[in-house]
Amino acid sequence: MVCGCASAAATKPQRIAVERQTVQRLIGPERTSFLKFELERGDAQRQKVALQDLSWRYRHGEVLSSESRNSIEFIVCGIVLQPQQDPKVARWCLNAIAQMGRREYSNSYVEQALKKYEERPEIVAAGVAAICQLNAG
After folding, report:
1. Largest Cα–Cα distance of the chain, in whole Å?
2. Alpha-carbon separation of residue 11 from 7, 8, 17, 117 (angstroms)
3. Cβ(117)–Cβ(87) under 8 Å?
4. For the chain, what percentages of helix, strand and coil (3-state, to nearest 5) are there?
């Protein structure tokens, strides 16, 4: 190896993977406002779509500003425990929490959701993934 730098020795796919992990873009204020609106006032279908969009954006390197993250995390944690919640919305809430949640805030909500939905394996799986992700960092 000519230079002592590990990144110089890395293959091109490895370098690209590392670059993708480090580049984060803020989700714009218009999109953030739209997501909040849909989560707070939308019906179950619109909430689910907003949660899917939020999860997709996080998986692709976009993040919320810290202020927006606080409010959206608060909203999502509230939605997951609402009485008579659509199971698909509850599952996507847990998926979103796995992507953007913080242990100190979301962990207790996820644990309560696991108890509430213990008979729904697809929701339990999303909850377990959320707990693992929250406790990984």
Report:
1. 63
2. 8, 8, 10, 45
3. yes
4. 75, 5, 20
